[in-house]
Amino acid sequence: MTNSDTTDSSPITLGLLLIDGFALMSYAAVIEPYRAANVLAGRMLYRWVHISIDGAPVRASNGATILADGRVGEPIDCATLFAFAAGDPAGFADAATFAWLRRLGAGQVTLAGVSGAPYLLARAGLLDGYRATIHWDHRPGFVETFPMVTVDTGLYVIDRRRVTCAGGSAGLDLAVELIERDQGHALANRVSEWFIRTEQRRADRPQRLSLRDRYAITDDRLLKVLAQMERAVEEPLARADLALSVGLSVRQLERLFVQRLGRTIDQLYLGIRLDQACVMLTRTGMPVTAIALACGFRSSSSFSRAFAAQIGVSPTRYRAGS
Asked: Among candidates 158, 167, 262, 261, which has minimal Cα distance to 208?
């Protein structure tokens, strides 16, 4: 994974590829644990270099500027390269960056995509045949676009020399895991405590709140049905099948939905499908017709009618205004 298996005490070099508009939270969550490891160890275990597309300073999502030490295309001697994409990674299309990533991936460099940056690795053809994860907001479009990638829903995935992370605070969990692999359990624990991380979150922990918390319900039957609905968006399940799966009649299940959730089964299921459509419209360049099919609609016209009725604008206008 890194060059820590050498016998000398030279620092492990990390590359940090920053794309204009990158999320500062995702960046800080990854790099700060490495800084803490240096401080706590009393010596430089890690060093890092910042890379931008053209070597110019890079602006983060909040407007902060970070100076670049190098540019895409230049040789870089690093053990791991972390990539941090902007808010629309599906729209990133710099061929030189993809070619550079492929050259690095063909060697001994571990490539890590954080938050939306797994899109960059996948666009470069570097995740085919690998397990990966991505921020839940980007997941629907990513799954549709890259069928050769096995997409998990956890916080991070380490698959050989490919690392992917959901971003946000999950970068801290990933960095602590990688530090533990390099330096051992004791230092990793001290880094965790440094950042008030008292609960160890492993790779397979979920990215989102549980259904129980999101919907503020405790009925196990409703929770099971909601889980099925969220999994079956492209091919929605019939009400009768949902009811049968929890041993209720359709009428009984409808009554539970209205009483506990304030909506009918069809109303809530439509909301789930349209929520996913909103994500795909803003996070991918997929045609509206393809999004309609991916969200369980038989035609783009039926999708547009349902979308406009609930969201207030057409899918095309919603995408244009995002």
From this structure: 167
Please tell me the predicted confidence (pLDDT) of residue 280. Answer: 87
Buried (b) or exposed (e) across 16-43, using 16+ Cβ within 10 A? Answer: bbbbeebbebbbebbbbbbebbeebeee
Q: What is the pTM of this model?
A: 0.78
Task: Give residue 2's pLDDT.
Answer: 46
The answer to whether 98 and 67 have CB atoms below 8 angstroms apart is no
Ranking 187-201, 228-242, 248-262 by mean pLDDT, the lowest is 187-201
pLDDT at 322: 65
How far from the centroid of its chain's Cα atoms is residue 311's Cα? Answer: 25
The answer to whether the beta carbons of residues 237 and 244 sit under 8 Å apart is no
Strand partners, 164: 113, 157
Pairing of strands 150-151, 162-165: unpaired
Name the residue among 153, 298, 314 with its Cα closest to residue 236: 298
DSSP, res 90: G
Phi, psi (degrees; rounded to nearest 5) at 291 = -65, -40
pLDDT (average), residues 106-132: 97
Residues forming beta bridges with residue 46, ordered by sequence position: 12
Mean pLDDT, to the nearest integer, of 75-103?
A: 95
Q: Which of 176, 147, 174 is nearest to 163 (CA)?
A: 174
Q: Rounded distance, CA 55 to CA 71, Å?
A: 4
Rounded Cα distance between 67 and 278, Å, is 35
Which amino acid is located at 12 in the chain? I
Candidate from 25-29, 43-47, 163-167, 195-199 with smallest mean pLDDT = 195-199
Contacting residues for 27 by C-beta, under 8 A, at least 6 apart: 16, 18, 60, 84, 114, 171
Confidence of residue 8 (pLDDT cuts 50, 70, 90): low
Question: Are β-strands 65-66 and 12-18 bridged in parallel, bridged antiparallel, or unpaired?
Answer: unpaired
Q: What backbone phi and psi angles, to 5 degrees, belong to 18?
A: -110, 125
Q: Which residues pair with 132 in a beta bridge?
A: 151
Among 166, 158, 111, 113, CA closest to 138: 166
